[in-house]
Amino acid sequence: MKIDKNTINKIARLSRIKLDDKESEDYIKDLNSILDWVEQLNEVNTENVEPLSNISSSILPKREDVSNDTNSSDEILENAPDKLEGFFAVPKVVE
Amino acid sequence: MNNLIKGEKHDWEMVIGLEIHAQVKSNSKLFSSSSTKFGSSPNSQVSLVDAAMPGMLPVINKYCVEQAVKTGVGLNAKINNYSVFDRKNYFYADLPQGYQISQYKYPIVGEGKVTIDFKDGTSKDIRIVRLHLEQDAGKSLHDQNPSKTYVDLNRSGVALMEIVSEPDIRTPDEAGMYISKIRSILMYLDTCDGNMQEGSLRADVNISVRKPGDKYGTRCEIKNLNSIKFIKQAINYEAKRQIEILESGGSIEQNTMLFNTSTGKTRPMRNKEEAHDYRYFPDPDLLPLEISKEEIGKIKSSIPELPDELKNKFIETYKLSNYDASVLTAEKQTSDYFNETINSDSELKNHAKIVVNWITSELFSLLNKNNQDLNNSPVSPENLGQLIKLISTNEISGKIAKDVLEDMFSSGKTARQIVDEKDLQQVTDHGEITKVIDEVIAENPKMVEQYLAGKDKLLGFFVGQAMKLTKGKANPKMLNDILKQKLNKKN
Lengths: 95, 491
Known about the structure:
Chain A has 95 residues and is α+β, with helices and mostly antiparallel strands. Chain A has helices spanning 5-14, 21-39, 73-77, and strands at residues 62-63, 83-84, 87-91. Chain A has a domain at 5-43: Histone, subunit A. The longest helix of chain A has 19 residues, at 21-39. Chain B is built from 16 helices and 17 strands. In chain B, strand 13, helix 3 and strand 14 form a beta-alpha-beta unit. In chain B, the strands form 4 sheets. In chain B, strands 1, 2, 7, 8, 11, 12, 13, 14 and 15 form a 9-stranded mixed β-sheet that branches. Helix content of chain B is 40%, strand content 19%. Chain B is of the alpha+beta class and 491 residues long. In chain B, helix 2 packs antiparallel against helix 3 (228-247), helix 8 (332-342) packs across helix 10 and helix 10 runs antiparallel to helix 11. Chain B has helices spanning 62-74, 172-189, 228-247, 272-275, 293-301, 307-318, 322-330, 332-342, 352-369, 381-392, 398-411, 415-422, 430-443, 445-452, 459-469, 476-490; strands at residues 5-6, 11-23, 60-61, 82-83, 86-89, 99-102, 112-117, 123-135, 139-141, 148-152, 159-165, 201-210, 220-225, 255-260, 265-268, 281-282, 289-290. Chains A and B meet through helix 1, strand 1, helix 3 and strand 3 of A and strand 3, helix 1, strand 10 and strand 17 of B.
């Protein structure tokens, strides 16, 4: 797989990152060399090997279904650039 | 059955699949301890995990996992011992993480099926592809301010079960029956409260049309429908739209649609080509979810009787029809009410059909009229049982029983009290009824003449007059019999 200008623009848009031409060029170079390096893994025979989702061998810790009733809305909203009556207020998103 | 829609040129068949989102009934969220209560003040149930503050880590709710397994068992589905949580990446104001934790390649529940029953006694299986666990998003309010959207994150992180069907559904009615059946199973299992108005249960509908026998057409997905009525409306509109395009020589563009509930129309969502690149990958914050055979076995043994089993039991025990039994078992509260009523008196077991009728027609219509629910019915199952016993033992007539039920409903008194107070016992005394009939015949000589001359319809007139005199209390069968006998004697 090769990263080209279109791919880099798409990734940038999906990540909400604005790139100028110089930056795009740099990223194309960087990402391609990362991909080349990772390509080496193709040399390993993975037939009949289940994909690994996590390298830890411990077991997923679980919690009991107990709710705490702390209302942290003040803290939660503290960093919000704009809020109203307990709501976050964001530029209008209409769908 | 003909499931086809007539087009200008030929017939069309709809192909429909549903993705149902059911909120897990739990106290706390899927990955945090915040409360899941509905209707609290905005952002009052949001922890630092739900708000996606840096460094916060998700810890899974054991109970939500069990609820998903339970639901899987209820859907006759395969439970997977191993499943994985993935990140589904997209930007939206009510998704603070920038991704939804969901399950992609390895869901917790695999293939299953549910059965829907038609009025004519036939049934059909709808296959389930999978059920997976995921987080709900927050809520956006778009209509409060012309330039702002308000965001409430209370719902953010609540556990959802997404139940995906195969495209086995062929009509809007089948879609409605399928979601009703899923809702019913969820409510019997008590894994979701089934409240569509509050959004605890909602669906995305995938729909395409084709000539019968052809390959599947290109489909469109209608997002976020929260009532059975809207699901049917949206399907009807969307199918018509697609047929019109195809018949005029166009082709369907695969699209995500929104349904406008006030106009009844669908329209494409903007920006969808980007929204669909979710870049799923395993969430590095969460280990794979493993469930042992023992745990699954334990959950299986805790499963209550489900609607289909209960339906068969009702058919067998009480000799009810498939349709009556499926109406009774569609909602848990109805089957519970029926059980309590019929078990309130040992006599009633022999009158199951009457019990069904009094619950599903008389009581239901009173509840509807008064905007009430069976759960808080003013008439208890015991009291309804008593009323039905009065009918079955001929103490009161069915007609009078209707008035008694209305009285019970508004006054809260028992059937016995009302019948005694108002002196409503049926007159079954032969002599008394004969006396009244004699009176009616004597008072209406002209009518008698006409009746005897062949105007049979007048029998109803005599019955009416006699009933009036007994204040509706005469046993109708006896009244009819004696009346006919008397009139024919005159001949």
